[in-house]
């Protein structure tokens, strides 16, 4: 009898469990409501899985995968009946940490090995916020046809990870920031001097850094981190200087400025909202369905955020740092005082003229209404040109300090270098073609050569162009003579190069023979890709090293600064060359130049020099 009682209890227990399962089953619950299709599909799925398990084809249980969790930084907006947007902020609960590490957490990156560009990276983040990156770059020993590549010794580089810091927006806070930087640099100099008294001067290939205690590695890092915190004109000038070579700027400072070039700190959410409220009105969110508070990029003047408009368009919103536009002149003056005090910049660079040009360029770049106009103008100019696309400007979500454009995707130039040789040749050709068109056809050029401004879409073989804040016009007469000089350089005509250089303002006519020879040879080096028909392999010669060696001589013997137009123009031209070198592209440069030259409408003084003939 006891056995029967125990059996009865077991049956009752199993019955209760079965009832509870039925109660909690969503599929059966749906079936009760008439959703027999779900019940049937679930039953068939379970039967198939059971049969497969019995046959030995599968093993295990059916798992339901939940959809990916939304990004914590994305805010979704729901408009109520009054037209005021309500925001639903994604947040993590139950003690679950976000998927992405916080800004202060260490990052450990696996090695990345590329088949074409052969770059191996390992990253670690220290407590100072600087990522140590070990890189083996095999660009100089690259077989274009895909042969074996010999590795160089790893080089220890530093990369700075952006942090969330409020932008100093008032004149006092910015002045205080520069004062603190100056005091830090002075203290660092005292420390380095004391260190050298005890241990002696360091061994260094860079003579300036070996002589000056100011040029210590610690001071260089102080400078870079301060500029990243300050942002604005100070950071922009640092980024401009970072693309120079060691003949202009000492190696320790170049290393620090390379950290600067990687990006600025980011605004906290509260400060970002203040800018958006002031520029677009407190109801700015009513025009969006979502907004990502984590920036896609943080630069010297502003940062870029992804959003989605009410009509479903993915957009990029560039938001300017507060106080940047009004502090350009004071920032430039403070940077100049620092550079004068440290005596870092050689006289041949003509710092006053360079600062004057930088101030004018920065003033234009801070006007997002002007940038929107530039972008629309480029959109019209390139609308019929195959292989280029300029994203649309969204006017109703834009202002003088906020610019909203269609979001485009693609691979930046440095990543295109990982693709096959045919693709690299194509992209290199299109970039050089664009540069020549901008100067000699449109006489209107986007002068920022940042590789991330050119995004290659491999599916459509199109280069998406972004960031037109640095776009500017060039006078017809200047472009006429510059084209003549380029042809003279391509044809190795010394007399024509000197004559055009005088007309353009690069030479005064009173230069020494040493200066003239260095200037002409520099012109011939730049003209080398255009000197012969057929494809020019940009990895066949070291153009940048040749120019660097000649540049040091020109800095010592130069009698006049270059014309104002040359600062932005040469930045873009050197950027185009560096991009082609990075890509390892083979480009028919002379054919591209002759195509432009033969159709160019020269203005007055059309006595084209004999050297500039198309022969």
UniProtKB/TrEMBL annotation:
**Which keywords belong to this entry?**
ATP-binding, Nucleotide-binding, Transferase, Ubiquinone
Q: Mind telling me which Pfam families this protein's record contains?
A: ABC1
Specify the ABC1 atypical kinase-like domain's residue ranges.
260-501
A GO term, aspect molecular function: transferase activity
* UniProt-listed GO biological process terms: ubiquinone biosynthetic process
Q: Which family does it belong to?
A: Belongs to the protein kinase superfamily. ADCK protein kinase family.
Q: What is this protein called?
A: Ubiquinone biosynthesis protein coq-8
């Amino acid at each position: 009898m006891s056995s029967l009682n125990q059996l009865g209890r077991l049956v009752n227990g199993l019955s209760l469990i079965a009832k509870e399962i039925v109660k909690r089953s969503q599929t059966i619950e749906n079936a009760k409501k008439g959703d027999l299709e779900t019940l049937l599909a679930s039953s068939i799925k379970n039967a198939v899985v059971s049969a497969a398990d019995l046959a030995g084809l599968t093993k295990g249980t059916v798992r339901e995968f939940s959809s990916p969790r939304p990004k914590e930084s994305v805010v979704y907006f729901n408009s109520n009946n009054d037209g005021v947007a309500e925001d639903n902020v994604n947040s993590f609960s139950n003690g679950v940490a976000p998927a992405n590490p916080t800004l202060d957490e260490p990052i450990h990156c696996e090695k990345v090995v590329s088949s074409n560009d052969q770059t191996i990276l390992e990253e670690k983040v220290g407590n100072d916020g600087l990522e140590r990156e070990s890189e083996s770059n095999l660009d100089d020993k690259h077989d274009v046809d895909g042969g074996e590549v010999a590795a160089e010794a790893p080089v220890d580089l530093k990369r700075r990870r952006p942090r969330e810091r409020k932008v100093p927006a008032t004149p006092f806070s910015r002045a205080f920031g520069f004062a603190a930087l100056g005091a830090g640099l002075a203290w660092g100099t005292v420390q380095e001097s004391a260190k050298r008294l005890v241990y002696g001067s360091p061994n260094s290939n860079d003579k300036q850094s070996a002589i000056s205690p100011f040029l210590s590695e610690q001071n260089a890092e102080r400078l870079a981190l301060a500029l990243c915190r300050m942002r604005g004109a100070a950071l922009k000038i640092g980024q401009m200087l970072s693309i120079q070579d060691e003949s202009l700027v000492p190696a320790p400072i170049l290393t620090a400025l390379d950290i600067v070039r990687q990006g600025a700190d980011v605004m906290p959410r509260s400060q970002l909202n203040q800018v958006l409220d002031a520029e677009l009105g407190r109801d700015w969110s009513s025009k969006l369905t979502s907004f990502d508070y984590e920036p896609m990029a943080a630069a010297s003047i502003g940062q870029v955020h992804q959003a989605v408009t009410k009509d479903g368009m993915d957009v990029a919103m560039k938001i300017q740092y507060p106080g940047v536009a009004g502090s350009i002149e004071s920032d430039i003056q403070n940077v100049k005082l620092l550079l004068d005090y440290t005596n870092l910049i050689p006289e041949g660079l003509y710092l006053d003229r360079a600062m004057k040009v930088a101030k004018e360029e920065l003033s234009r770049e801070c006007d997002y209404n002007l940038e929107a106009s530039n972008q629309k103008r480029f959109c019209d100019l390139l609308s019929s040109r195959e292989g280029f696309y300029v994203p649309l400007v969204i006017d109703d979500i834009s202002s003088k300090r906020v610019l909203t454009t269609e979001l485009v995707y693609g691979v930046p130039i440095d990543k295109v270098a990982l693709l096959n040789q045919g693709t690299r040749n194509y992209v290199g050709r299109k970039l050089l073609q664009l540069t020549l068109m901008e100067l000699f056809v449109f006489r209107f050029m986007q002068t920022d050569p940042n590789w991330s401004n050119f995004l290659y879409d491999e599916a459509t073989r199109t280069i998406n162009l972004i960031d037109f804040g640095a776009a500017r016009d060039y006078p017809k007469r200047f472009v006429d003579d510059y084209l003549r000089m380029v042809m003279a350089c391509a044809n190795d005509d010394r007399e024509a190069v000197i004559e055009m250089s005088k007309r353009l303002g690069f030479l005064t006519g009173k230069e020494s023979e040493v200066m003239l020879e260095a200037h002409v040879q520099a012109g011939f080096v730049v003209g080398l890709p255009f000197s012969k028909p057929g494809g020019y392999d940009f990895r066949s010669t070291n153009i940048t090293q040749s120019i660097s060696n000649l540049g040091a001589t020109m800095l010592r013997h130069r009698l006049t600064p270059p014309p104002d137009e040359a600062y932005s123009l040469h930045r873009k031209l050197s950027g185009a060359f560096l991009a082609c070198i990075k890509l390892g592209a083979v480009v028919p440069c002379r054919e591209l130049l002759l195509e432009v030259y033969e159709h160019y409408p020269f203005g007055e003084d059309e006595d084209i020099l004999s050297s500039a003939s198309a022969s």
